[in-house]
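Example complex used in Figure S2.
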Amino acid sequence: MRPLGLDEVRITGGFWAQRQETNASATLAHIEHWLEREGWLPNFDLAVHGGLPEGRRGREFSDSEVYKLLEAMAWELAREPDAALEARFDAIVRRVAAAQETDGYVSTMFGRPGQGERYSDLEWGHELYCQGHLMQAAVARARTGHLDDLLVRVARRSADHVCATFGPDGNPGVCGHAEVEVALAELGRVLDEPRYVRQAALFVERRGHATLADIEWGRSYYQDDVPVRDAEVFRGHAVRANYLAAGAIDVGVETDDDALVAAVARQWDRTHAARTYVTGGQGSHHQDEAFGEDFVLPPDRAYSETCAGVGSVMVAWRLLLAQGHPRYADAVERTLFNVVATSPAHDGRAFYYANTLHQRVPGETPAPDAVSKRAESSLRAPWFDVSCCPPNVARTFASLAGYLATVDDGGLQLHQYASSEIRAALPSGERVAVDVETRYPTEGRVRVTVVEAPGSRWALTLRVPAWSPTASLRVDGGVERRVPAGVVAVPDLRAGSVVELDLDMSPRFLHPDDRIDAVRGCVAVQRGPEVLCVESVDLPDGHDVADLRVDPSVPPREADGRVVVRGVVVDHRVRTWPYVPVDDADAREPVGAPAGGDGMVHDIALVPYHDWANRGPSTMRVWMPTR
Amino acid sequence: MRPLGLDEVRITGGFWAQRQETNASATLAHIEHWLEREGWLPNFDLAVHGGLPEGRRGREFSDSEVYKLLEAMAWELAREPDAALEARFDAIVRRVAAAQETDGYVSTMFGRPGQGERYSDLEWGHELYCQGHLMQAAVARARTGHLDDLLVRVARRSADHVCATFGPDGNPGVCGHAEVEVALAELGRVLDEPRYVRQAALFVERRGHATLADIEWGRSYYQDDVPVRDAEVFRGHAVRANYLAAGAIDVGVETDDDALVAAVARQWDRTHAARTYVTGGQGSHHQDEAFGEDFVLPPDRAYSETCAGVGSVMVAWRLLLAQGHPRYADAVERTLFNVVATSPAHDGRAFYYANTLHQRVPGETPAPDAVSKRAESSLRAPWFDVSCCPPNVARTFASLAGYLATVDDGGLQLHQYASSEIRAALPSGERVAVDVETRYPTEGRVRVTVVEAPGSRWALTLRVPAWSPTASLRVDGGVERRVPAGVVAVPDLRAGSVVELDLDMSPRFLHPDDRIDAVRGCVAVQRGPEVLCVESVDLPDGHDVADLRVDPSVPPREADGRVVVRGVVVDHRVRTWPYVPVDDADAREPVGAPAGGDGMVHDIALVPYHDWANRGPSTMRVWMPTR
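Predicted assembly (1254 residues):
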């Protein structure tokens, strides 16, 4: 399946359009402001004027945040041309270009007198990681019609330098943070430079052979413990693991290495079956921002880093393109709605870095002018000491239209639903054009109007998400037919035809696999693609979410535009020691919890998880204990 | 209540005597070997001969491991005099003494050209922490009859230096790792030096006023967020929190500051009600080795550092002495049996640093000659990069007899049960002597023979642990009477009298407070003071502990010398996504789990938790899901 460019798909309204607007109008400038303020962008100027290393500010990977902003801007300029933004983009590109060494190397952190030597700290230096993000920004520029832009030329020189330095006869190392693999593969593809793809393949093959140091958390932290094609599951640092997997798939696809793609797909299956939160979030260790063992998925210590969600979308999207199974599109949807969309505040100027599924103590509102710690239990913060997530959200939102649809020899496939205009060419060269209208995910109806149809046989294929046990489909006002979850293909539509898909948006309880010990005896609620949660601000009488016990025999239902569940709130007995003999049932049972039916039973309103903590400090839980 | 010296109480046989023997015969030499091998002891020689900082090895706190070994040796020399051990002890003391600066300061890490300046890194430098452990070693020496030993003189000079440097008009700082507080208070008490106690008091009062830097995990990490007397609960790094609390109690007692003692007691209550594992273990974060929020007690990510257990025993013991309530002795017992005793292997040459309550993947046996990482999920290791725990266990075991009994105006109190000889003087000067015979904790009978009785009125007070709902007491073969949990006083016994206490050792299920989400729907089993666990090596047909479902309606019982529970083992359905709608009950229920009664129901044998992982790699859980 071929992905579509931003000139072929455009989101025209609804949930994601609103986020794209906020991203364009607020987030990009917000990030640029903080990059200037914290010195991460001025570091490039210091590099030009001899002010390094003395004046350098930021962590070793701060260059990458500048590149991710450039990538976001590049996608945004294709989504919605804007001369002022173009000028800001050009200015930043020029500052970066000026700092590039004559041999193509670029870093504000290494290589000067008083700094570490180039590539002297592959474990933590992030030089290849940063240059990878530079290349990825150039990919966005090249993919949006600027194949010989200054940014592309800078990235090309950087890629040439990387190939010259780390080629088959060069430095045999890999970067402690995967990223350059996917970047080189994408840059090689868009610029038709097989050398870059070969270098990406070399990096992928080298990893897992213990060339990096054995750190406190082991080499699994940077996936240098087991070769990519031998691994059984994603492990270690969740962002690193996903970026590496994305690069490995790209390499596998570009080099027709089906075994490599299959190896990553196998790892993805186990990772999704045993190491992924219901939100799609990944990473259950705070210590090393890492995956835990299978079924270690504590909601209250969920790390679920926003960037890991972005990386997970990258991986699932590539597997969808390579293998076509709708479960990958389900995963993209789940992660976009419940991880990536959770990070930014409504105003696009504050973010979650980690995304807990259970807030036990109300957070505090970070000061708007302060740098926050990345994983503290607070409300969304404007900026972090490690601020990878805000620009990662920005580049994802700006390029979001690209995830909606694909084409192949058989026609057009719709994977994600948003009001949109799709104007694409099939591999045969024939044009296909459809308009999508929907109030998704508020409502489950998706209406597709065929604007232009190929003359030869083709099909419009629609995804029926796994959360919708059945859906109904109607073509040109004809008879409704029920279709199961998966995909449904509608053949040979003509211009003017209308396809209506109605997904089952009923809210449903979800039960966890009982090996996920941390949520045993709890239920979650999902409605459409959205995982819901309960916030203490919606509980009666000042109760906390710890006090809620849900009645799983009463299905969640919609009332006054919100999903509600039936439950009781209980008072907890004060105990001096929390472990009591089984025969002390009276002490174990919370008081104030009637068998049901009287005034103490409440309807509790839930909110979409991505919307939590927008009404001030509260406690929150996704998984709710049952009685 | 007055604690007894090692010249007044001696453990003569049984569970703890065996561990004391192993400690003496194997562990002390093992630790000495590794301290030499890793250079932590030779660092002192380098300090004398000008080999620092170039030749220095070990982390910034490595000096303290030498001091803790000295403390362990000092206690051991009082428990069981041994000329060869005395000579080794003296040799180490001389090497330490030689490295002391003329003004009393001692550190192999700071203060020389090429090293950091003294006290230039109070957050992480550990200089006061190390010197505190030096003082604590001297306390052991002074408490065992050597009030003017070289070690005591060295510690006195160090304490004088600390008072001169950090006194009311001096450096206003505190150490990032509490320890010097309790050490100064104890040294001041044993040497009758009120200056040291006042300095300890000053350090306690200074903490909590944000004089240390605000690090990634916040100032709560080193308890510098809230003043000691204002805090509500133990928080931050669990070892630091307990050491500080111990120091604060000592200061409170020595300065008659009841409010300070009451503040720590209040914090202890909430900490034990909401932040302590069923084993007595503390600390649920790997990231910062810290307490989590209330009820964040994941068994699979339990940190429960051995040193935090040692610190927790120190705190509970001091609260027992100050306030007399038996719940503190219960906590001492729980933590000794289930945390401190869990750390060392049977041979005394390998240790757990962290003590998980749920091992999901079998660990690997560390190489006997390799330094292990402190918190990896492996079997007990001979030594760690951070190796605070082995010498902490050693000093605790060597001084264990001191926790058994106290005297006060009313007589003699027995707090912990072990075969022992107690020869003490009451505050009145009258002698009291008893012999204790017991096979505790294998059996619950404790037989106390009065060898020498005071002439005036007195009582022998016995603790009835909270886990024994009732016990039976018989004096001189008379009528048995039932006594409730708490304490029972037997008045005016004469020499030759025999008191027999029979504790209820029936194994019992424990249910967790239902706010501890991580173990909802699970039971644990306790028998006497021992928490039990299930290991995969005891499951049928190669099943893993993840497959066990216990029937809570069948009480645990004893069979063939082991405790068994009734349960089934289940096969888990393979799933691609582990969250399923509630109405998909069939997919949710594990297969292979009959309603009960046929051949698939098994009796599953448990082992004491402290004994786990002594039969090779296995998976293990303390909390077992019920059906």
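Confidence is low (pLDDT under 50) at residues 583-599 of chain B. Residues 84 and 444 of chain B are 38 Å apart (CA to CA).
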